[in-house]
């Protein structure tokens, strides 16, 4: 079977802000590991042909021989050891993407509320434009503040968007951007930054406020509320 679109899920973080000994991507949300919610959507998506999961070295066997099997994630073809930073984990996974693949979709393991529509939209936009991200327009008033905590100016929020994942890119230029950044010691907070830095266009696809990133304990409370709301809407 041809592999056209590959999803990379970086899930190697330690989640120190969450506290405890269990990495946040494996904490229970709705009775299931957090990462399972993202993987389930990618498994279901007709756009995704293959999934590569990047996890801590100690969790390789668990993810490949337990989690993937137990939840029926047949699209997980590889589980690779992540790196020290998220960027390293994505680069490690990119090296395992088949050369025949044209589009790579990168999605954070700790954003459990992506949808199939988001995946399809960014993949289609990346195919057309080169790169695309899910993002939200800034709705709050933005202040630029000095080191003395005094407001210096109010920033025009009209052109400002909050970047999320999934993010999708053409495979070869993304791989080259990661390799170049690694060689030059450049560190980025998301893959779109590297794609832009390498001179490639990236467009924005508007997402959803539910597409939260779980980084702190209170985010798990919000996540449980979103799950409950979705279940209620399905049963209504």
Q: How many runs of DSSP E, i.e. beta strands?
A: 11
Q: Element order, helices and strands?
A: EEEHEHEHEHEEEEHHEH
What strand order characterises the main sheet?
A: 5-4-1-6-10-7-11
- Main sheet properties: 7 strands, mixed
The residue-averaged pLDDT reads 93
Radius of gyration, whole Å:
18 Å
| Portion of residues within helices | 25-40%
Strand content: 15-25%
Keywords:
seven-stranded mixed sheet; 36% helix; alpha/beta; 236 residues; two-stranded antiparallel ribbon
Descriptive report:
This protein is an alpha/beta fold. The protein is built from seven helices and eleven strands. It has helices at about 35-45, 60-70, 85-95, 115-130, 170-185, 190-195, 215-235; strands spanning about 5-10, 30, 30-35, 50-55, 75-80, 105, 130-135, 140-145, 150-155, 160-170, 205. The protein has a seven-stranded mixed sheet with strand order 5-4-1-6-10-7-11, with helices on both faces. β4, α2 (about 60-70) and β5 (about 75-80) form a beta-alpha-beta unit. α3 packs across α5 and α5 crosses α6 (about 190-195). The chain is globular, with a radius of gyration of 18 Å.
